[in-house]
Amino acid sequence: MTATERPLLNRRLAEFGTTIFAEMSALAVRTGALNLGQGFPDTDGPEEVREAAVRALRDGRGNQYPPGPGIPELRQAVAAHQERFYGHLGLGYDPDGEVLVTAGATEAIAASLLALVEPGDEVIALEPYYDSYAASIAMAGGTRVPVTLRPAADGRYHLDLDELRAAVTDRTRLILLNTPHNPTGTVLSRAELAAVAELCSTRDLLAVTDEVYEHLSFDGEHLPLASLPGMRDRTVTISSSGKTFSFTGWKVGWLKAC
């Protein structure tokens, strides 16, 4: 194949078309329908949060390039948030060395996979999944291995632990976990998470957890995977302000890892 015959798009992305979220959002706008296809609310967040942002802009705070890891006050706030909600689980982070601010959780997911996955590695992802997972895994040269969540008699989607264990091979690098889960709404139970943690420990796997809905669980206990024995050192935990405060357009996310 000559240079002129080479496809313009990276071959790793050849299988991907327009994101389904863009398609459904455009359809909702065109028809005036309620948009359930993308994870943003139909109202803006608290007035006091908006006013705090306005004051910061007028005071000249954050208008220029921030430090690479993110503005120190924000990293400190992320660490304080962890201590407030999960300190009783012994899960704390150093804001200067274990917290990284990103342009939304999507960048955090992509950065984590690009940093941890090499060509030939396999990444287990729960299915259905946020579609950027597949593209990020592909860009890293990895192979996505789906494990499907299925509804049970109680109406809740469950993780089949036997299927998860069977999906692990000698090429498996990490498990990409999303809980509370989008789009099924399920919250993985303590027993399910404990089984994931045991699997990671026994098979020497890493974990990347997408926890952007951590404060939006109505039924069930959200338990960070990193809080379980042996998991803090092998887990990248991702969250964002967009889902929690209903300001998804601000694209403020972060990851925590040691």
3D architecture notes:
- The structure is a single chain.
- This protein has eight helices and nine strands.
- The protein has helices spanning about 20-30, 45-60, 70-85, 105-115, 130-140, 160-165, 190-205, 240-245; strands spanning about 100, 120-125, 145-150, 150, 155-160, 170-180, 205-210, 235-240, 255.
- The termini are far apart.
- It has about 260 residues and is of the alpha/beta class.
- Helices cover about 35% and strands about 15% of the residues.
What characteristics describe this protein?
258 residues; alpha/beta; 8 helices; 16% strand
Radius of gyration, whole Å: 19 Å
Topology order in helix (H) and strand (E) letters: HHHEHEHEEEHEHEEHE
Question: What general form does the structure show?
Answer: globular
**Portion in strands:** 15-25%
| Count of helical regions | 8
Question: For the largest beta sheet, what order do the strands appear in spatially?
Answer: 1-9-8-7-6-2-3
In total, the number of strands is 9
Largest sheet: 7 strands, mixed
The portion of residues assigned to helices is: 25-40%
For the termini, the CA-CA separation is 44 Å
Structural class by helix and strand composition: alpha/beta
Average pLDDT, all residues: 92
Unreliable stretches covering 5 or more consecutive residues: none
